[in-house]
Each structure stands twice: as C-alpha cells, then as structure tokens.
Amino acid sequence: MDCGPPGSSVHGVFQGEESLRILVPTEGDSLPLMDMNTCETKTPELWDYVLVVDRRTQRNPGQVQRQQQFLEELENQGFHYKAMEDQEKEFFGIRADNRIFDRYQRLMEPEDTVPRGELSRPTSIQATNRIRIVNFVLKSKMAAGDTLQDLVKDGVFEDGFPLHKGEEHLKKKWARWRSMFQRQPISDIRDYFGEKVALYFAWLGWYTYMLVPAAVVGLVVFLSGFSRFEASQISKEICKAHDIYMCPRGDHNRRFQRLSDTCAYAKLTHLFDNEGTVLFAIFMALWATVFLEMWKRERARVVLQWELYGWDEDQEEMALGLINCPDYQPRLHQHSYLRSTVILLLSLLMICLMIGMAHVLVVYRVLAAALFNSALPFLGEQVTTAVVVSGALVHYVIILIMTKINKYVALKLCDFEKPRTFSERESKFTIKFFTLQFFAHFSSLIYIAFILGRINGHPGKTVRLAGLWKLEECHLSGCMMDLFVQMAIIMGLKQTLSNCMEYLRPWLAHKYRSLRALSQDPELGHWQRNYRLNPVYTFSLFDEFMEMRTWLQVLEIIGVLAVIANGMVIAFTSEFIPRVVYKYRYGPCRSGAQSEVDCFTGYVNHSLSVFYTKDFQDPAKIEGSENVTECRYRDYFSAQDSNFSEQHWFLLAIRLAFLILFEHVALCIKLIAAWFVPDVPQSVKNEVLKKKYQRLEQKSCSSRSTDV
User: Fold this and answer.
1) What is the pTM of this model?
2) What 3 state SS string does 105-139 have?
3) DSSP annotation string for 148-178
4) Residue 29 CB partners (closer than 8 Å, separation 6+)
C-alpha cells in the first residue's frame, strides 16, 4: 500500500496546504444531553474530523464508489465514522481509535525517559497534537492512490475540517477590547490554536509591552522638538527671508519663490529633524537589541513551560509516517546545484523588478508634476506636495499588488526547491518572501532618502528624463519632508485601511455563512457551525508574521540594517551634519559660545548656493526675472563655475566619518547588549538540568531494581 505522507509534519498549527475550518479538534462537546424518553443523561460521541458532501450536486456512481472506498480504508486503519445529513449536505464524522495516539506517544517518548511498566499505560494527548495526527493520516495516500485533497478536487467530497472547542471561552476571556490590558491566556490559546500561533501571540504581547519605553523616549524627543517649534533660529531665519528667492524648480514652474513661503514646512521639519534625532536613533538600535535578547529569554521560559525542549521534528515526522504505514520510508534530503542556480537567478530577477517599480514611481512623479502644473494651476506651489502625496498612494497600491505576486513567486520557488519537511519549506518561504517584500516596501523610500534631488544637476544645467522632462527635486524645505510624507502615508494606510480590511473581510464572510438556520439536533448543529466557519489556510497568519518580523534570524538582520539605514538617513538626508559643521566651523560660535547670539545665526544663507539669473538659457521666460539678479538653491556649489565648493567636500568627508562612527558605535552597543543579556535565563537552564538529572536518576533506579 502506498501510504507515504503527502508533505511533511510540523510541531505547530498547520499541516499541508489544505483549508481547515479551525485548528483544534473537540474532545467532546462535553455538556451532557438529556434523553427525553428515559430522563437519563448521555454524553455525545467524540469526533475528530468531519467530511462534507454536497447532496445537491449530481454525483456519478464512480464518485460514490470512491467515497465508500475511502471510508472503508479509514476503518481498516482504526477510524470510525458516522453519517448525518440535512437538506443540502451530508456529513461524515471521523473518530480515531485511542490506540493510534498511544502508539504515537510510545514512538515519541525516548525509552530512557519512561519507567519500566508504564509504557502500556494510556497517556493523554494534547488536542492540537491529536488533530495533527488525524489530519496527517487523512491527507496521506490510501491504497487506491488517492489523498483527501484529490477526492475534494474531483468532487467526491466538498470539504473536510477538524472539529473544535473553546472558542466561546477565548471570546469572553481574550478576544474583546475590554481585555486589552489583561494578560493574555497563552495556555488557552495554545490549547486552541497550537504552539506556533500561541508563540506568535506571546511574542506580540511581549513586543507591545516592550514598545512602552521606546514610545516614551520617542514622545520626549518629539515634545522637545515641538517646544522649539517657534524658537528654532533656523526656522526664524527662513520665515524672515522675504528677500531670498529660490530658483525655479521645474519646467512648468517658471517663477521665483520666496524662501519665506516655506516657513510652515521648515517648522514642521524641525519636529522630526533636530538634535534629539541622533540620540533617539542610537537608543532605538540599543532598544532593538535589548528587546530581541529579552524575547529570547521569554521564549525560553515559554518553551520550558510547554515542555518543548529537545523536540525533534524529524522524529515526529517519522513517527507519524510509521503510524500511517508500517512500510513507511522517510523522505531524504535533496540538493541540486541546478535548482539552486535557477532559484537564485529568478530571485535576482524579482529583485530587479522591485527596483524597476521604484523607477516607475520616479517616472510617475516626474509626469505627475508636469500634469498637475498644466491641469491644476490653482495648486501653485503646492504641486510638489501633491506629487509627493499621490506618489505615496501609488507606492501603497504597488505594495499591495506586489505582496500578492511575491507570495505566489516565493511559494513556487519553495516548491521548486523541494524542501523535505513543511517546517523547512516554511523557513525557506520566509527568507524568500521577506527578501522580496523588503525591496517592494523600501526601494522607493531608499530612492527618496538617498537619491532624490541629488542627481538633478543645478540651475542652468539640469538632468532630464529621456531628454524631455526635468527630474523631480526635493521639497523646498528639504528631502526629509518628502521622506516623512511618504512614510506617514504608507504606514497610516497600512495601519488603518489594511487592518480594517483584515478585520472586516473575514467578519462579513462569517456573518454571511452563518445566516442559515442550524439543525435542531445538537450534534449535527455543532458540525454545521464548524462547517460555516471561515477556512484557514497554510499561511493564513503569515501576513501577521510578516508585519511583526517573527523570526529571530530576520530580526537580527533587521537590527543591523536599521543601524545602517538610520546612520545614512542622519548623515545624508538630515540637516544634522551641516548644522553641526556650521556651528563649530563657520558660525559665530566657532571660536566659543556667544551668549548674545545664537550659534546657528546665518546658517540658512550659508547653506544655500547662489545662481545668477543671467546664466539661465532663457531668462526672459521666467516670471519676475527682470527684478531678480540671483536666486538660491540647496547644496554647496560655487557661484562662479557651478562646481562643488570646498564646503561640499568637507561636509562629505564629515558625513562619511559620522556614518562609520555611528555604525560602529551602535553595532558595538548591540554586541555588548547581546553579550550582557543571556539568551536563556539561568532558572530555565537549571530547570532543564534538573529534569535531565531526574530522568537519569529514574533510569538508574529502574536498572538497579531490575538487577535485583
């Protein structure tokens, strides 16, 4: 009999790619039923799984024969079934014999951990493990060569799902807004969903708890900037710069603009680009490391509490295979350099596509600027803001589309790689999907932070797209404003619109499926309720995992990338370095602090380059050119030959030095914190050591009694 597993097993929630109504079986809807004829109570039969047949569809004799053959084969393997029907559906309840679970326990427990004479004693099994075993057998190939997925695909069965219990208890105790500030019932979540989902919610609760200090520090930094909303010397100079004209920024914006018109944006920029930004960036690098190390310790406690230390996934896979088929042979590891090369090339192709999406966004913003200037002239100087906002919305739509594509591609690449177990498949999928999503989410942000406005040339000599359209520039108040708007819109939409859809879509689907009345028979009604629950697929919670970056390896990588990205943003996008250099090299405080003058006095004039309007190719076409002899633009260029000035190269050297110093200091802090905080608490280590000693002592006593 061909009874090999269809995929593989995993100690957790999901098994295979089938849709499940819920993840945990019922071990009895243990409320007793009253027999009205005898006035005696009786306990309902316990069922693990339910198969559904749609009676309204015409089924040929071949389908009926395959259905009966499948049920008979289940009986031969130690399963019992019971048929019940309503007006539309026929339900088959499936129950496994307890001997199957006893055998599983004997195969999974090492012999030296159980005293002699106790192997024959029936052992209790967790509900999630029970349904995983039943699910594994049902999804394996039968003698006829069919799996349950094959029968569902061919219309022999409409669906199959495990039964469950405990949802009402979790609704009252956990899934309510008023329970927000209460400790999560992780053990109950584990009993209902399994270890993997329970561990996710344990992580989520810990993450939320650890966000409190980060939020407090961030709030202090924000309030510090807000307290200087009107007091910043740089903002004051910008607001009073009525006689400084900025050079025209685009082909359709052919007029000079006063620098004072950007007063409000300058004050807003100072809220998130001030001296506290660097300290907060260093703090967040330290916080990320401390959080990760503290979570490792919390996870170790949870794993010890659940007795998952030493769990061997390969052993469980082989145990399930042997339970299902005495002739089972484990699937061997496979590796192919050809497959690996193809996967690498396809992954690089997808990454190039992600980067191409960022270039598409660049083209869109250039064309949108031209369109808005011609079609919406009333926007005036707000065209740049409109382009930034619309570009962020387009980027959000691209992220939604590419998420679907990336998930499909990552799954196909995993299937092509042929991982041995489901856990290995999930791990490979995580790496591929995270890599693709990283470029989908951050490619345009990287462009805005480090490229936007830096390859445009300068007034009189601009870089054009396809020789026609002038490349877009940063906002008049600086590139930090563009980056802030882009991130605010994307994060805001993901936290509002995306979360609303994640909640409303399954809620409305469940309400629609629950409109029909249930059977008066308690057992059949219980099956119908389970049938009408929303289906849960292999990666149903994977989007949630991606939002929280749940894997330790991924978190480690993100921690390092965050340090590098923060350092680069501060060094090349923020005005922090130019301000510090001006304060100590060019400003009035370069020889020492002056009590009567602000150290940043004159910074605005110093940071803007000069361009003579007579050097424009067609100055007559610029509105107001007859009254303006020179205009200003951001960056450090020489007014005589439009080459980079000495200040530019000095600033570049300081930026690079700061980036190297910042990264090394932050990474050293991360390494010290990682070393200082042990991954596993000493109490957990001692408890594991104690259990090992107890097992050895038990084995030693058993051996002595046998010798006697």
Assistant:
1) 0.74
2) HHHHCCHHHCCCCCCCCCCCCCHHHHHHHHHHHHC
3) HHHHHHTTS-SEEEE----HHHHHHHTSSGG
4) 44, 165, 522, 523, 526
Q: Is the pLDDT of residue 31 over 50?
A: no
Q: Are the beta carbons of 618 and 462 closer than 8 angstroms? A: no
468 to 198, 465, 506: CA distances (angstroms): 57, 6, 48
Angle at 651 between CA 647 and CA 655, to 5 degrees: 175
pLDDT at 251: 57
Strand partners, 469: 465
Q: Tokens standing for 707?
A: 């010798």
Distance in angstroms (rounded) separating the CA atoms of residues 96 and 75:
9
Contacts of 517 (CB under 8 A, 6+ apart): none
Name residue, tokens 């919406």. 376
Q: Which of 9-13, 249-253, 659-663 has the highest mean pLDDT?
A: 659-663
The candidate with the shortest Cα–Cα distance to 147, out of 135, 130, 132, is: 135
Largest CA distance in the chain: 114
Radius of gyration of the chain (CA): 33
Residue 479, token pair as written in the block: 């590139």
pLDDT of 27: 37
Q: Give the position of tokens 């929630």.
A: 13
Residue with token string 């400084």 = 244
β-pair partners for 65: none
Single-letter residue type at 238: I
Residue 253: the pLDDT is 55
8 Å CB contact between 572 and 453: no
In the chain, the amino acid numbered 412 is K
Nearest Cα neighbor of 146 from 48, 53, 78, 72 is 72
SS3 of 364-404: the string is HHHHHHHHHHHHCHHHHHHHHHHHHHHHHHHHHHHHHHHHH
| 676 phi, psi to nearest 5 deg | -70, -35
Residues 207-231 as b/e (b if ≥16 CB within 10 A, e otherwise) read eeebeeeeeebeeebeeebeebeee
Interior CA angle at 300 toward 296 and 301, to 5°? Answer: 120
d(CA 579, CA 587): 9
Please tell me the predicted confidence (pLDDT) of residue 290: 83
Q: Do the Cβ atoms of 362 and 472 come closer than 8 Å?
A: yes
CB atoms within 10 A of CB 279: 14
CA dist 489 and 312 (Å) reads: 45
Exposed e or buried b per residue across 566-594, where buried means at least 16 C-beta atoms within 10 angstroms of its C-beta: bbbbbbbbbbbbbbebbbeebbbbeeeee
Q: Both tokens of residue 454?
A: 């830096």
Q: Buried (b) or exposed (e) across 610-646, using 16+ Cβ within 10 A? A: ebbbeebeeeeebeebeebeebbbbbbbeeeebebbe
CB 164, CB 171: distance < 8 Å: no
CA distance 263 to 240: 8
Residue appearing with tokens 């090349």: 572
Task: Look up residue 253 and give its two tokens.
Answer: 């914006």
Buried b (16+ CB within 10 A) or exposed e, 109-121: eeeeebeeeeeee
Measured in Å, how far apart are the chain's first and last C-alpha atoms? 46
Give every strand in the sheet of 49-54, ordered side by side. 79-85, 89-96, 49-54, 159-162
**Most confidently predicted of 200-214, 522-536, 611-625, 635-649:** 200-214
Q: Are strands 245-246 and 461-462 parallel, antiparallel or unpaired?
A: unpaired
* CB 357 within 8 Å of CB 443: yes
| Mean pLDDT taken over the chain | 78
**608 phi and psi, to 5 degrees?**
-105, 130
pLDDT digits 0-9 by tens, 569-604 = 888 888 889 999 998 888 888 887 777 788 888 998
Q: Give the amino acid at 218.
A: G
